[in-house]
Amino acid sequence: MSDPLIFPNFDPVAFHIGPLLVRWYALAYIAAFILALPLAKRLCQKTPKVATPLLVDDFLFYAVLGVLLGGRLGYVLFYRPLHYASHPLEILQTWKGGMSFHGGAIGVILAMAFFCWRKKLSFLGFADRIVPVVPIGLALGRCANFINGELWGRTTTAHLPWVMIFPNAGPIPRHPSELYEALTEGVLLFIIMLLAAKNQKVRSHAGFLSGLFLLGYGTARAFCEFFREPDANIGFLPGGITMGQVLCLPMILIGLILMIVALKRAPFTEKPL
Known about the structure:
It is a single chain. The protein is mostly helical. It is 59% helix and 5% strand. The protein has ten helices and four strands. The protein has helices at 24-45, 53-78, 81-86, 101-119, 123-130, 134-147, 177-197, 200-204, 208-224, 243-264; strands at residues 5-6, 13-17, 20-23, 164-165.
């Protein structure tokens, strides 16, 4: 039996610019958008073409707004509704943490629907070109969670060489579940999405890639929840499941339906841009 690792004492603030504190979590978001944008442009140009690179640039503002507003409101509504109902001004205190991927996903979907309506684009066709790059943000975001020493894993014995003691979580070894999620929801899902997006027949069935992403993320997140400590204010739900797993179930079902319907639908054809 090996000794557990000790969580490195990272500073959640990456650097200062005068009185401004730049946190690792903010840098993760910025890096994700910088890395994902050129790749999304290339995917949109692959046949059948669904958007121009300029339209992808235009969508960036909508995506950022959807992630931030949806992620914050999702956390408020899904995880701590009673607390924020009593302390509504704390909803604005985003520097204290509290973002939900499921809320952010809903926010981006709504922002994308509005954007595609305004620009007269195929919603599913455009979504299929954007979702393959989303795991980049997921991987970097989970790495930022790890640096912040938050969202740690469940307690375990020290039989695995990578189990870790998080000082803020007590002296018992825990799974570094943030890194599990970075590898599965991030790296692994990114590889799967890119391989699928390279296939022209897959790209031609609008909605298939979007469904694959929902299925892949929902499955990976639900699996990692078995190693992640539930939110303290919620704990385990009946049957030993977590809120994260509950929220993943509709994603998995919708993903499967989208994939099946996409394969039955006639191939997507290009429209003049």
